[in-house]
Amino acid sequence: MRHLLALAALVLPLSAMADPASDFSLRDLNGDTVTLSQHAGQVVLIDFWATWCGPCKQELPHLQEMYTELGDQGFTVLAVSTDDARDKAKVKPFIRRSQFSFPVLYDTQSDVLTAYNPGKTLPFAVLVGRDGEVASLHSGYNPGDEVALRAEIEELLAHGAPSQAAPAVETAPTAAPAE
Amino acid sequence: MVIWLLVASALAADPVVGVAQPVDEPVVAATASPQESSGNGVSVAVTNDFEFRYWVRDQRVPSFPDRAVFNYMEQVNRTNISIGKGKWSAWAQIDQVALFANRYRLDGELVNERELVGPSAYTPLPNFLYINPEKLSASFDGGNVEVTLGDFYATFGNGVALSVNRNPQVDIDSSIQGARVTYSSDLWDVVALVGQLNRQQVFQDNPNLDIMGDRRHLVAGVRADRYGLGPAAVGAHAVMVDYVQDTGFGPSFSQLGGPDAVVAGASTELYGVGGIDWLAEADAFYYGAGDLITPNGDDWGYAAYASATAYVGPTTWQFEGKRYLNTETVNGPLGDEQYELAIAPTLEYDLAITEDSSGAVNSDDIAGGRLRVDWAADPGRLTPYASLGIFRDWDTGPLHFNTVPETIVHPFVGIEWFPGETAAIVNVGYRSDIRDGNDSGTDRQLYTDLDIKFPIGKHLHLDVAGQGEWFRWGVNPLQQEDYVEFTSSISALHGSDWAIIWYTDFTNNPLVSSKGNISEALYGALEVQVKPSDALTLKLFGGSQKEGLRCAGGQCRVLPGFSGIRAAAVGSF
């Protein structure tokens, strides 16, 4: 029990601090490399989803709207597919026929999923501010959630132009997103 | 986290001993909270998932029919901790489970009705409490090269040769514990790994009883992917497995011999060649262990899978084909551990898989294909679709209900419609497993699943969801009875703030061992969910739900029925 209490004492002070978003590098639907750090200075929504997840499919059109309408202001979506490898063939047709244009990434080794979303809920989204800090986490989706999410994104976008930001994520070799 | 520690403390200090009594209001304390933090460049993420269940059993001691002494309480907790600093990162997952009221005093004698830990698992703790550092991992990211020591997940290609991953939908979370080195550049991804398979010991959704020790099978593999070859990417891989019979760390080394199974294969992906997206993979299997050699004497197998997707105007045409021979054999030694090492594309519809069709999912001798057409009537908003799968299953092994080969014909249609605040997903299908000859008949399954959500007031929605099936057996040695079953839920949702959900299940399937609380076949339950913030969702459930086979990600598991009360908190900060 003393060990448990010691663990609590260790964790609690840390939990009061802020958090930089961990960088990652994944392949997109065309095999190109996409990293979080190449979007430094932007407001980024990392959205974990799957083709079998109904609420995820309901939310994605709203994310596309935000991506289209707020992209010029420095907002982007990185949609990380959590589909199993055996379902890889389902991902690209779903994205193409839905005409989603944001980058869609495969996390085949589940490394990013483990780092950001070790729980069970989908969809799960991590909102990263221009400063590279995690602004908020969002689990699940119900109609109307997109309104509050958009307001939060617009507030983050208003916190400075991309060139003024001091990104916290580490830079890494980049490749232009194909989507 | 703190509340969990307090509960654990209380558990350790005051175990329940004596005649078990139902509780009117189980004490529930829960927190599930990913907490992100950093200091001096250090980031820490903590996720805690706490659940408390009061299991109601209709068993009685014959001499005390009025005492529900077989009821018991279970508390499960999972803590994930991720720490990162610069190029270094570490991850730990700690699972804990405790049982209360799992024993009673009869005629002055203490009877331990349910054991939490079986003899094959070691624990220095009292027998009502089990704590396991399930995953431990540390990584160094040197730019193009990353080294991981400890636990990691791994998937090669389309999963035919290696797919060790988390699958929370069916409560499976296996990993490889060892070393992994990856090299990544714009043109290359290379991964090499070696380690022991690490099966999760504490389940999040299933009851934890007689926890068994790990049989730490040895696995090693390498895969290389080359991108940028014009419109193509190609990859090749090899995997070696050495199974062990006994639990613990030692046997993985002391029982090490020649490889029991070797899988080698290659895959390719072509982007828009001839206007079509292509995927293909081929694998060869070799079995060195005597108990893996098939009844036909084969010590080999192969798998071939391909997918072609064409985009014609607003329609998407996708054809997938497969031919698998002795590929499921590689998972055979893991059967009683309830997870799989390799999961090939099944081309099945997960929600429609039954005890019968799961035989085809795990078939060792099957070929077939599936054509699916989607029409993006309003892209992203309205998509009707239709699918037709035809398979030939020659496997009549012990997991199958068919004693002769069969032809499977499986059409289904569906629609996805998301017009603003309304959302609807509906599927209807009909599957026939047509046995050769006239003596075995045809298994028939008519099924539907739906999820319809629509507004009924300001910020208020009604969500009607369910799935049901009508199943009629052909002729088979077990002569199961035909059945009807469904699960359903009606939810009132106030945005994401709160939800009230009523569940109704029905089954007269004799293969289902659970019993309903309304009648033997009918189950009812009520759940209240409250989300006071994005950070936290509280759930309180009371009632019964039926047992059922659940399939996801190519893996199926029978999830037990539940009767009682459970409370949980799921949250994120």
**Roughly how many Å is the radius of gyration of chain B?**
25 Å
CATH topology of the largest domain in chain B: Porin
Numbering strands along the chain, what is their spatial order in the largest sheet of chain A?
A: 2-1-5-4-3-6-7
Proportion of β residues of chain A? 15-25%
Most extensive interface: pair and counts? A-B, 69 and 102 residues
Number of strands of chain A: 7
Give the class of chain B from helix and strand content and strand pairing.
mainly beta
Low-confidence spans of chain B: pLDDT under 50, at least 5 residues?
A: 1-39
Name the descriptors:
heterodimer; A: 179 residues; alpha/beta; Glutaredoxin; 7 strands; 34% helix; 20% strand; disordered N terminus; disordered C terminus; B: 573 residues; mainly beta; Porin; 3 domains; 24-stranded antiparallel barrel; two-stranded antiparallel ribbon; 3 helices; 3% helix
Characterization of this structure:
The complex is a heterodimer of chains A (179) and B (573). In chain A, strand 3 (43-49), helix 2 (54-70) and strand 4 (75-81) form a beta-alpha-beta unit. Chain A is built from five helices and seven strands; from the N terminus they run αβββαβαβαββα. Chain A has a single domain (19-164), classed as 3-Layer(aba) Sandwich (Glutaredoxin), CATH 3.40.30. By secondary structure, chain A is α/β, with parallel strands linked by helices. Residues 1-17 and 162-179 of chain A have low confidence and may be disordered. A seven-stranded mixed sheet of chain A has the order 2-1-5-4-3-6-7. Chain A has helices spanning 2-15, 54-70, 88-98, 111-116, 145-157, and strands spanning 25-28, 33-35, 43-49, 75-81, 104-106, 124-128, 134-139. By secondary structure, chain B is mainly beta. Chain B has three domains: 1-133, no CATH class; 142-300 and 334-344, no CATH class; 391-573, Porin, CATH 2.40.160. Chain B has three helices and 33 strands. Chain B has a 24-stranded antiparallel beta barrel. A two-stranded antiparallel ribbon of chain B has the order 5-6. In chain B, strand 24 (423-435) and strand 25 (442-457) form a beta hairpin. The longest helix of chain B is centred in the first third of the chain and has 12 residues, at 2-13. Classes of the chains: A alpha/beta (179), B mainly beta (573).
